[in-house]
């Protein structure tokens, strides 16, 4: 078995050698290892011309949520069927990215896990990784992380404060806000 694995690994490395720059770009994403980058590249290919937008790539791969709504009633938001190999690799990378420190993807996973559960949060991070991969291939630039606090920075301070007050009130506390003397 070890001999067969070694032979196959050498063959994969030989075939992937012309795409080493693209593999290097993919490996700048937190949670994406060399094997995951090879799977992503093998499944979607090096040319992003087939996918005009990142949303179309995510839809083709089957990692974007469905939208089943009619007459104001929301149905199941199941994802489409797509490449099972790509989906498994992306979800595995999402779980790895969720364990990185001070990264945008880890913050996204932590933010969604509390409301949606770990599996839906991992699929959302997998979707983000695929969208990032599309942008990396399209632009040819390495990934730059937005940081763990980017979700807080996007909110206005008023909205953030109100959300925290609502959370405390749901926990049974009476909240009174007073500005600090500075």
What does it look like?
The protein has 182 residues and is mostly helical. The chain has one domain. It contains nine helices and two strands, in the order H-H-H-H-E-E-H-H-H-H-H. It has helices spanning 2-16, 20-26, 34-44, 54-61, 84-98, 104-116, 118-139, 150-154, 157-170, and strands spanning 69-70, 73-74. Strands 1-2 form a two-stranded antiparallel sheet. Strand 1 and strand 2 form a beta hairpin. Helix 6 (104-116) packs antiparallel against helix 7 (118-139). The longest helix is centred in the last third of the chain and has 22 residues, at 118-139. The chain is elongated. The mean pLDDT is 85.
Tell how many strands the DSSP assignment holds. Answer: 2
The radius of gyration computed from the alpha-carbon positions, rounded to a whole number of angstroms, is: 20 Å
Structural class by secondary-structure content: mainly alpha
Largest sheet: 2 strands, antiparallel
What is the averaged pLDDT score?
Answer: 85
Low-confidence stretches are: none
Oligomer: single chain
Cross-sheet strand order for the largest sheet: 1-2
Fraction of helical residues: 55-70%
Fraction in beta strands: under 5%
In angstroms, what separates the terminal alpha carbons? 69 Å
Label the overall shape: elongated
Present the secondary structure layout:
Layout: H1 2-16, H2 20-26, H3 34-44, H4 54-61, E1 69-70, E2 73-74, H5 84-98, H6 104-116, H7 118-139, H8 150-154, H9 157-170
Antiparallel strand pairs: 1-2
Helix pairs in contact: 2-3, 3-5, 4-7, 5-7, 6-7
């Amino acid at each position: 078995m070890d001999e067969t694995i070694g032979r196959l690994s050498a063959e994969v490395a030989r075939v992937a050698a012309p795409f080493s720059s693209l593999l290097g770009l993919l490996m700048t994403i937190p949670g994406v290892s060399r094997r995951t980058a090879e799977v992503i590249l093998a499944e979607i290919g090096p040319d992003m011309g087939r996918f005009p937008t990142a949303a179309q790539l995510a839809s083709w791969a089957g990692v974007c949520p469905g939208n089943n709504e009619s007459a104001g009633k929301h149905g199941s938001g199941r994802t489409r069927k797509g490449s099972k190999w790509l989906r498994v690799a992306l979800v595995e990378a999402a779980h790895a990215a969720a364990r990185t420190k001070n990264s945008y993807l880890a913050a996204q996973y932590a933010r969604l896990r509390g409301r949606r559960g770990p599996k839906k949060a991992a699929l959302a991070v997998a979707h983000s990784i695929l969208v990032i991969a599309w942008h990396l291939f399209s632009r040819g630039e390495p990934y730059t992380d937005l940081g763990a606090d980017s979700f807080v920075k996007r909110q206005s301070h008023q909205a953030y404060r109100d959300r925290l007050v609502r959370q405390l009130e749901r926990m049974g506390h009476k909240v009174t806000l007073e500005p600090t003397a500075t």
